[in-house]
């Protein structure tokens, strides 16, 4: 059974909201390299030039880098899901091509696989 339009719209709204949220959070610590692809680069903030400032900068950057990687990965999953909606393959398991249950998509709209294949 194919997914009805109402459910699809709901999931699309959820994905768009998630995308905005991720972009907002990424914007605090990174700058977009390619927004379409969800590619970001962590920004290095200059706090000052003395030794303590430099150490804090490096700590902050290291922390931001790991947060940025996590957010970027999630954003790419969301963009990927939106792309699958466009080309009509959304809701199909990337592994076995079976349908992903709607409940699973509601919990995680960017899910690529069914429960058996996850
Ligand atoms: Zn599967």
Can you walk through the features of this model?
The chain is elongated and about 60 Å long. The chain has helices spanning about 5-30, 50-85, 100-105, and strands spanning about 30-35, 40. It contains 3 helices and 2 strands; from the N terminus they run H-E-E-H-H. A hairpin with a 4-residue loop joins strand 1 (about 30-35) and strand 2 (about 40). It has a single domain, classed as DksA, coiled-coil domain (Four Helix Bundle (Hemerythrin (Met), subunit A), Up-down Bundle).
A few lines on this structure:
The chain is mainly α and 118 residues long.
List the helices and strands and how they pair.
Layout: H1 5-29, E1 30-34, E2 39-42, H2 51-87, H3 102-107
Antiparallel strand pairs: 1-2
The chain binds zinc ion (ZN).
Instruction: Quickly give the CATH architecture.
Output: Up-down Bundle
Number of helices: 3
Proportion of residues in extended strands: 5-15%
Given as residue ranges, the uncertain stretches (5+ residues, pLDDT < 50) are none
SSE run: HEEHH
CATH topology annotation: Four Helix Bundle (Hemerythrin (Met), subunit A)
Euclidean distance between termini CA atoms: 21 Å
Order of adjacent strands in the largest pleated sheet: 1-2
Radius of gyration: 18 Å
Specify the overall morphology: elongated
Structural class: mainly alpha
In this structure, how is the largest beta sheet organized?
Answer: 2 strands, antiparallel
In helices, the fraction of residues equals 55-70%
Total of domains: 1
Number of separate strands: 2
Give the CATH level 1 class.
Mainly Alpha
Bound molecules: zinc ion
């Amino acid at each position: 059974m194919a997914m009805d339009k109402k459910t699809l719209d709901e999931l699309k709204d959820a994905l768009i909201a998630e995308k905005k949220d991720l972009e907002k959070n990424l914007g605090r610590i990174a700058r977009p390299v390619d927004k379409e692809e969800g590619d970001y680069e962590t920004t290095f903030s200059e706090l000052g030039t003395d030794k303590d400032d430099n150490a804090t900068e490096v700590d902050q950057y290291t922390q931001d880098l790991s947060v940025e990687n996590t957010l970027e990965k999630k954003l790419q999953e969301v963009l990927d899901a939106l792309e699958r909606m466009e080309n009509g393959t959304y809701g199909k398991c990337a592994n076995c091509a079976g349908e992903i249950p709607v409940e699973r998509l509601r919990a995680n709209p960017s899910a690529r696989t069914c429960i058996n294949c996850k």
